[in-house]
Design a protein that fits this description.
The structure holds 3 protein chains of 3 kinds.
Chain A (H helix, E strand, L loop, with lengths): L6 H17 L1 H22 L3 H23 L2 H8 L2 H7 L4 H28 L6 H28 L6 H28 L5 H30 L1
Helix pairs in contact in A: 1-6, 2-3, 2-6, 3-6, 3-7, 3-8, 6-7, 6-9, 7-8, 7-9, 8-9
Chain B lengths: L1 H21 L13 H28 L2 H33 L7 H22 L3 H33 L14 H33 L4 H4 L2 H4 L1
Chain C lengths: L5 H6 L4 H44 L1
Classes of the chains: A mainly alpha, B mainly alpha, C mainly alpha.
Chain lengths: ~230, ~220, ~60
């Protein structure tokens, strides 16, 4: 098994995670329900003025998606940490960072991707025009992996700590700011005729940078937690 | 350490004297601009301390030295305090000059997020009971934060130009009189000295708290008295 | 010297609330930090002393 990059390990982990999630479906569904319910609360609380809803829609959907991602973050490593699987994985010959990448990918497939797919549907509640909906979905597709990558750092740092959930929020939310800005900015920019290309490419750049650095940070944090 | 404290005190007195007595009243902003002598030094310090903190954190992580990790955690509260003061004095300066306490400007927003980063660092360290893990986890977080600060700054700046909300330009700094600059630099130096004194003091506390069982601590003259 | 009398100095050309508000809070916060630090040092020293005394008793 000569696999320098641990690609087979990544594949194996993704496969395993998806299988596990399929057995505990509620874990994957809860963040989505949260997303649907919270976004539906907004028209009920701020009124149904079409113009206003249109204006706040990108922000509301993005912030709610961000919170939904964050709420499920503690689950990323908790289970494996509690039952000792994580320790075994760290000792296995496959690189730990490959395992981290696999876990984040699986996590994104289970939360980020459904959120991004669900968002266009919810955007209809906010009377968003079709072009804006498409841009919103695109930015969510690119942005949610970044959220998952950055979030994995927070999840690994707070592994096994009391009050971990709130702490994750405190650590991760400030780091989410740029993603949020460019994600919502894309829709606004397109609406004001500037075009969303710049925002989308900046988001993609962030994804690449986060994809490179955050597994390293997460791996380091996991090793610290396992010591 | 007492020397740094004394230097901080003297420099503060000198800086305040220059700032509040020698510097002339500003033509545009009247005497309200005198907040600058507090605002600019604390803002510089709040940013600089984070970088120094991240530096010590990195040293601690790479060379596995406990003292540098202790330095990092000794700096965090002071940095958070300066970030808060920077926001506070900024708000009090903004109100009479721009008519508002708060502007969603790149610098202000970044400073706010910097305060959150300090808070996160301290919260993480205090949540972990195991000292070594607390040090290392804090170090990783500090490094992640330091990478993010420029990204946050530029993203907020970009966002701000898009939103073009309050059209307040902070960058058109009127050419500063030399005497004002001197006052500001004196105050900045004072903030430096203060930070060094306080951080060293705090690091000694941390050492005392952690190493209270070692022989050399028990042989200190403060203990033997 | 800019100020002809103390009142003028404290009035800060009409910006008294803002200028003295910043100065006051800054001084307060710095003072509080020093106070906390001294207290922390005292507690730590007392702890070490107690521990050392206990250790000395044990070895007797």
């Amino acid at each position: 098994m000569k696999d320098a990059f641990g690609l087979s390990a990544i594949y194996w982990i993704v496969h395993r995670e998806l299988k596990l999630t399929m057995r505990r479906k509620s874990d994957a569904i809860t963040p989505l329900l949260f997303f649907v319910i919270v976004t539906s609360l907004f028209p009920l609380s701020v009124g149904t003025d079409v113009e206003m809803l249109r204006r706040i829609a990108p922000g509301v959907l993005w912030v709610t998606a961000l919170l939904a991602t964050m709420l499920s973050l503690p689950r990323l490593f908790e289970q494996d940490y509690a039952d000792g699987t994580l320790e075994q994985l760290a000792l296995s010959p496959a690189p730990l960072s490959a395992m981290v990448v696999g876990k984040v990918v699986a996590y994104w497939l289970m939360t980020g991707l459904p959120l991004a797919l669900l968002a266009p549907l919810l955007a209809l509640q906010f009377y968003l025009p079709t072009t804006s909906i498409l841009i919103l979905a695109t930015t969510l597709l690119i942005g949610t992996p970044v959220l998952a990558l950055i979030g994995s750092i927070g999840a690994s740092l707070t592994l096994g700590l009391r009050g971990g959930g709130v702490l994750v929020a405190l650590l991760v939310l400030p780091l989410y700011v740029p993603v949020l800005i460019f994600g919502t900015g894309a829709v606004d920019a397109a609406a004001s005729g500037l075009g969303a290309t710049a925002n989308v490419s900046l988001l993609t750049a962030m994804l690449l940078v986060a994809g490179f650095f955050s597994p390293m940070a997460t791996t380091a944090a996991l090793r610290i937690a396992l010591e | 350490m007492p020397w740094f404290a004394a230097a901080a005190f003297c420099l503060t007195v000198a800086g305040l004297y220059v700032g509040f007595f020698m510097a002339p009243t500003d033509a545009q902003q009247g005497d309200g601009y005198r907040i600058i002598f507090l605002h600019v030094p604390v803002s510089w310090m709040s940013m600089f301390i984070y970088v120094v903190m991240a530096f010590w954190a990195a040293v601690g992580l790479i060379f596995n030295s406990r003292l540098s990790a202790m330095m990092a955690s000794a700096l965090a509260p002071t940095g958070a305090m300066f970030a808060f003061l920077s926001l506070w004095t900024g708000a009090l300066w903004g109100k009479p000059m721009w008519g508002t306490w708060w502007v969603w400007d790149a610098r202000l927003t970044s400073e706010l997020i910097l305060l959150f980063l300090y808070m996160g660092f301290m919260a993480l360290q205090s949540a972990i009971d195991d000292q070594r893990r607390a040090d290392k986890a804090g170090a990783v977080l500090a490094l992640v934060g330091v990478v993010n600060i420029p990204v946050i700054y530029f993203s907020v700046q970009w966002w701000n130009t898009l939103h073009q909300g309050a059209s307040v330009s902070l960058t058109q700094a009127p050419s500063m009189a030399t005497i004002m600059l001197i006052g500001m630099l004196l105050m900045a130096l004072a903030a430096w000295m203060y930070t060094i004194a306080v951080a060293l003091m705090r690091v000694r506390c941390i050492i005392l708290e952690r190493e209270y069982r070692t022989a050399w601590v028990n042989d200190l003259k403060e203990i033997r008295q | 010297m800019n100020w002809t009398n103390p009142n003028e100095f404290f009035a800060m050309g009409g910006y008294a609330t803002y200028v003295w508000g910043s100065v006051g809070v800054t001084v307060l916060v710095l003072y509080a930090e020093c106070l906390f630090l001294l207290k922390r040092r005292k507690t730590a020293l007392a702890h070490v002393k107690r521990d050392a005394a206990l250790g000395a008793e044990d070895s007797k």
